[in-house]
Amino acid sequence: MADYQLIIIGGGLSGVAAGIRSARFGQKTLIVEGHSLPGGLNSYYYRQGYLLETGLHAMTNFAAQGSKHAPLNRLFRQLKLSRKKFITHEQMGSEVIFPQASLRFSNELDLLCEEIARHFPASIDRFRAMVKEIDAYDPFAEVPWQSARNFLRDRLAEPLLEDMLLLPLMVYGNAEEHDMDLGQFAIMFRALFLEGFFRPEGTIKDLIDMLLEQYAQFGGELRFRASVAAIINKDDTVQGIRLENGEEITADAVLSTVGIPGTAQLSGWPLDIDEYIGRMTFMETISMLPELHLPPERAGRTILFYSLNDELRYHRPAEPIDPSWGVICFPDNFQGLERQNDAPTQVRVTNAANYDLWQQAAADREQYRHLKEACGRQSVAAVSKILGNYTQGAIFQDSFTPMTIERFTEKRGGAVYGSPIKIKSGRTPWSNLFIAGTDQGYLGIVGAMLSGVTIVNQHLLT
């Protein structure tokens, strides 16, 4: 008899959600996490006494409590969590900024439509027709890869508008360079433009604590500092895992959330792993400020997606970072979110990065530190063209890099959104080994948790 019915590798949000769903139905479940904190990419750390979040700019897929079929509410039912007690704060409003035009949007599609009608009047009817088409599209159908750029070009025939729509969708969840799969595009379009951004009350730690409490109540077990050395398999099934300390734990099934390359290496899965390692990774610079003073035209914005270039350049840069485009997030700018008078405010800036150059720098601690400082200055200088001298009087700055992401998420190459090749079924060559998370094709915090739940429902509760 196996030690557990299900072992989950990785204590990120997809793994924890899978654990809750499994344990809720009485399965003896163990989550093993290599680090001392849960959450994976969506975790937290402390600097100078302040809690800093590593992944939560904003959650996507907002839904009011009464919307039964919305992903957020469906997720809470699956995890048997109270949606009424989950207090949410919608975005104030966000903006896509290019040199030639800008588009504001909110959780109401009408604002985006008004902006498109104002800046691209010849495209508004085509855009509305495209929205209906996307709303009816099944992004999880097993179909060959299709180009989102070709889809947009055929429907809109307006290159600038195509780039402006793609920027937030790509930077919030696209593992590919230059283009994205139409299914991924449809998922992200719904998540950002049809449902929208919000923040839960509190921090990412509060959300994680809520999930872990639910997991424990259902009898689930969680072990930290338990790095996996190998997935033990024989013939067409897996028998369990071997930890780096040599301990072997048996299971009826194993669910891996460490991505396709990591799962392949642990299990001996015969893949060309390089094909499955994503190239898109990022550096994030966090500025802690006593006050936030935005230009009048940007006041009240929640997230700014910016490009200083006329065209979108969504690819791995040749330099350590590319500050010419990215994301600027103001985590305090959500409706009804109150900040204590003495608490600093944050500005978080995310820019595309080159993993290979960061890996080379990481071999020398001093070189790595200098590179972080230099790239932080580059990022601030670029963003200052939009916000002015926003870091004046900063209390402190901190940043994390592709190496940080790889270390704490096990995503090879620091690829935040995982492999450019997705396995939508979650299946592997072994009948009882499955994958969940970004490499299944679900993205964002809600998507990550739904991925874990979906795999348990489809493969492990039968």
Automatic annotation (TrEMBL):
<dbReference type="Pfam" id="PF01593">
    <property type="entry name" value="Amino_oxidase"/>
</dbReference>
<dbReference type="GO" id="GO:0016491">
    <property type="term" value="F:oxidoreductase activity"/>
</dbReference>
<dbReference type="InterPro" id="IPR002937">
    <property type="entry name" value="Amino_oxidase"/>
</dbReference>
<protein>
    <submittedName>
        <fullName>Phytoene dehydrogenase-related protein</fullName>
    </submittedName>
</protein>
<feature type="domain" description="Amine oxidase">
    <location>
        <begin position="13"/>
        <end position="264"/>
    </location>
</feature>
<dbReference type="InterPro" id="IPR036188">
    <property type="entry name" value="FAD/NAD-bd_sf"/>
</dbReference>
<keyword id="KW-0560">Oxidoreductase</keyword>
<comment type="similarity">
    <text>Belongs to the carotenoid/retinoid oxidoreductase family.</text>
</comment>
